[in-house]
Every structure is written in structure tokens, then in C-alpha cells.
Specification:
With 171 residues, the protein is an alpha/beta fold. It has eight helices and six strands, in the order E-H-E-H-H-E-H-E-H-H-H-E-E-H. A six-stranded mixed β-sheet has the order 2-3-1-4-5-6. It binds cytidine-5'-triphosphate and magnesium ion (MG). It comes from Streptomyces ossamyceticus. One of its GO terms (molecular function) is ATP binding.
């Protein structure tokens, strides 16, 4: 296990704005363990950035998640997940199968997330306003995550060492 503080069998929900580095972090796990909303948009439409394909891609993501939770397979959801409505069905799928569900906040500063859009291909560029709104939503969601049913809330720092949040804020 790359991150010893994560159980062998759990659901990891990444939370962060576009450009925060979620997919970079997700690439440290075997590809079969990562449910990437971008990749599933590509799977249903041939275009990872096609926003119109999001709803179909979310349906597929939920189906795959259900199958993996039923098998108690370690799973990472790579999507922004900055809204409660996006997270709710993920938490519910884990709970249905008594799997621990852990939030990993990728709390890269908004300005960095915006800068990282520049070199991206046009179909993968998220407008600066949208990125800032996602970042704000990520910050605001933090205090409610435990009440939503997450068993633990961790932070991915810039080195991708996962630290328990309480340790993080006490430093
Ligand atoms: N990046 C970086 N240093 C890091 C993490 C990421 O320079 N520590 C860079 C990546 O190489 C990439 C960009 O930042 O070019 C965005 O990272 P990515 O993982 O793609 O961000 P996501 O959060 O997955 O963005 P999106 O939601 O748009 O998929
Ligand atoms: Mg990504």
C-alpha cells in the first residue's frame, strides 16, 4: 500500500478543483483502482472534455463503483467532487457495503489551479471563474464531510504525503 494510513479496503474520494492535481495523485494507484470521470467521459463519447457527456459518465462511474464496493475493492474516485450532491451517492455506495469512505482533499491554491489550465489542450481547459468556484466549494465543503458520512478526512499536500487533517492544522 502506497499510503499506509489508508485501509487496504476502502473508498477514497478525491476532492479538489480542476488543476489541483487529483489525477496526478490518482496515477500513484493501479489504473484499475481509479474511477476517473474524465476517462469515463472519454469512454462514452471519445472526448474526455465533453461536458455534455458528464451525466452518462457519472451513471457509468456509479455502476462501476457499486460493482467494486460489492467486491470490497480499494477504489479511488477521481473527479472534482466539490458538491455534496456529487459526493452523496459515492458515500452511499460505500455504506451499502460497509466499506470505509475517506475524503482526500487536494487543496492546491486557486491561483495555481488556474495557472495550470494554460498548457492544457482546448477541450480540457476549465475557465478561471469555474476553477475559482470549484475551489471555493471545496473549501466550504470541508467542515461538513464527517457529517456526510466520511469516516476520515485527509489532505494531500504538495508532496502527496497524506497527513491526518488534525496534524496538518496543528502545525
Ligand atoms: N501538477 C504539478 N505538480 C503537482 C501536481 C500536478 O505540476 N504536484 C500539474 C500536472 O502535471 C498537470 C496539472 O498540474 O499538468 C494539473 O494536474 P492534474 O492532476 O491533471 O489535475 P486534476 O485535479 O486532475 O484536474 P482536473 O480536475 O481538471 O482533471
Ligand atoms: Mg484530472
Amino acid at each position: 500500500q502506497t499510503y499506509p494510513q489508508l485501509p487496504d479496503s476502502c473508498l477514497v474520494v478525491l476532492i479538489g478543483a480542476s488543476g489541483a492535481g487529483k489525477s496526478t495523485l490518482a496515477s500513484t494507484w493501479p489504473v484499475s483502482q481509479v474511477l476517473s470521470l474524465d476517462a469515463l467521459r472519454g469512454a462514452v463519447s471519445d472526448d474526455c472534455g465533453l461536458q455534455e457527456a458528464t451525466s452518462d459518465a457519472v451513471d457509468v462511474l456509479h455502476l462501476l463503483l457499486e460493482c467494486r464496493m460489492a467486491r470490497r475493492k480499494f477504489t479511488v474516485v477521481d473527479a472534482t467532487n466539490v458538491t455534496k450532491s456529487a459526493r452523496e451517492p459515492l458515500v452511499a455506495a460505500a455504506k451499502r457495503h460497509n466499506m470505509p469512505v475517506i475524503a482526500v482533499m487536494v487543496a492546491t491554491p486557486a491561483s495555481v489551479c488556474v495557472e495550470r489550465q494554460d498548457p492544457r489542450p482546448a477541450n480540457r481547459t476549465v475557465p478561471a471563474d469555474t476553477v475559482r468556484a470549484q475551489h471555493k466549494a471545496m473549501v466550504h465543503s470541508h467542515p461538513t464531510l464527517l457529517a456526510e458520512g466520511f469516516n476520515e478526512v485527509l489532505f494531500a499536500d504538495s508532496l502527496y504525503r497524506l497527513e491526518p487533517y488534525l496534524e496538518q492544522i496543528s502545525n
